[in-house]
């Protein structure tokens, strides 16, 4: 599933091909996504210039002269840039033809993604209640500490809550908790400010490293014949249950939390 670093990498991969371009034609082949693609999407977009492409949490914003297209990649969505006569793929549901001749194709086998139009994206119900971006100055250890007081939620669920901070998906929650030495089941309200400082740092470090790694895959967004290769990362705990901890050699354990795989080191994480 595309996580925040993949979405940011997608943004960086497609933005240079789209920004400043007029949308000439919009083709919706299958509008049955997580929410139906608005019937008037083409009418709203055709003739408009894409001013910029932003990201908020895992949403991409195509900012037009008037209004914004809000795109989510869902479980399996991807965007690619087509500059040649590459044939359509089975799950290419939406295509934007730009004045440069370039086409932007949205592929989504499972159709959990979305393409919505909004006059003012920041006020959209999906967007306005979101917590701060993890890589912005609004996110910090003291914020985690303050919001967690009196909460019995396990810390892993707490940092994956979009109202607390956006974009900490399952893999990154596992990795950051390991780096901070915090047990994923520890109650959020019982963790000291010091440890939240370390956890916030670990979240920033983990996401930044993944985005940096994603930079090496940017060329995959142009004329690729399938999913842009979401990057394989060297992970410390996620996917390594039963293997030795890289810090202390203890055997990593796996538990299920909210039905998601949770891997931790029983010795390093308290
Ligand atoms: Zn360990």
Task: Summarize the structure in words.
This protein is of the alpha+beta class and 270 residues long. It folds into 2 domains: 4-123, MutM-like, N-terminal (N-terminal domain of MutM-like DNA repair proteins, Alpha-Beta Barrel), CATH 3.20.190.10; 141-264, Helicase, Ruva Protein, domain 3. The protein is 24% helix and 21% strand. It is built from 6 helices and 10 strands. The strands form 3 sheets. Strands 1-6-7-5 form a 4-stranded antiparallel sheet. α5 crosses α6 (193-214). The radius of gyration is 20 Å and the shape is elongated. The two termini are 29 Å apart. Bound molecules: zinc ion (ZN). The site of zinc ion (ZN) has 7 residues, from loops.
Blueprint of the fold:
Layout: H1 4-18, E1 23-28, H2 41-45, E2 50-56, E3 59-64, E4 68-72, E5 78-82, E6 92-98, E7 103-107, E8 114-118, H3 141-148, H4 155-159, H5 170-180, H6 193-214, E9 253-257, E10 260-264
Antiparallel strand pairs: 1-6, 2-3, 3-4, 4-8, 5-7, 6-7, 9-10
This protein binds zinc ion.
The site of zinc ion has 7 residues, from loops.
């Amino acid at each position: 599933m595309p996580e925040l670093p993949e979405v940011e990498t997608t943004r960086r991969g497609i933005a240079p091909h789209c920004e400043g371009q007029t949308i000439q034609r919009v083709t919706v082949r299958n509008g049955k996504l997580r929410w139906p693609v608005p019937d008037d999407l083409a009418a709203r977009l055709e003739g408009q210039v894409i001013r910029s492409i932003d990201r908020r949490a895992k949403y991409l914003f195509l900012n037009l002269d008037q209004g914004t297209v809000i795109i989510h990649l869902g479980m399996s969505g991807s965007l690619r840039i087509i500059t040649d006569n590459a044939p359509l793929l089975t799950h290419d549901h939406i295509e934007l033809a730009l004045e440069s001749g370039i086409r932007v194709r949205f592929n989504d086998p499972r159709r959990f993604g979305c393409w919505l139009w909004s006059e003012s994206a920041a006020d959209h119900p999906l967007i306005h209640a979101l917590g701060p971006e993890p890589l912005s100055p609004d996110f910090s250890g003291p914020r985690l500490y303050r919001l967690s007081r009196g909460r019995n939620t396990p810390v892993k669920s707490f940092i994956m809550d979009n109202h607390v901070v956006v974009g900490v998906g399952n893999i990154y929650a596992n990795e950051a908790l390991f780096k901070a030495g915090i047990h994923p089941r520890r109650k959020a309200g019982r963790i000291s400010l010091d440890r939240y400082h370390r956890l916030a740092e670990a979240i920033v470090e983990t996401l930044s490293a993944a985005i940096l790694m994603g930079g090496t895959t940017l060329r995959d967004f142009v004329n690729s014949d399938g999913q842009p290769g979401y990057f394989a990362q060297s992970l410390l705990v996620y996917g390594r249950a039963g293997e030795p901890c890289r810090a202390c050699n203890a055997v990593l354990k796996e538990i299920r939390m909210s039905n998601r795989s949770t891997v931790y080191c029983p010795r390093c994480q308290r």
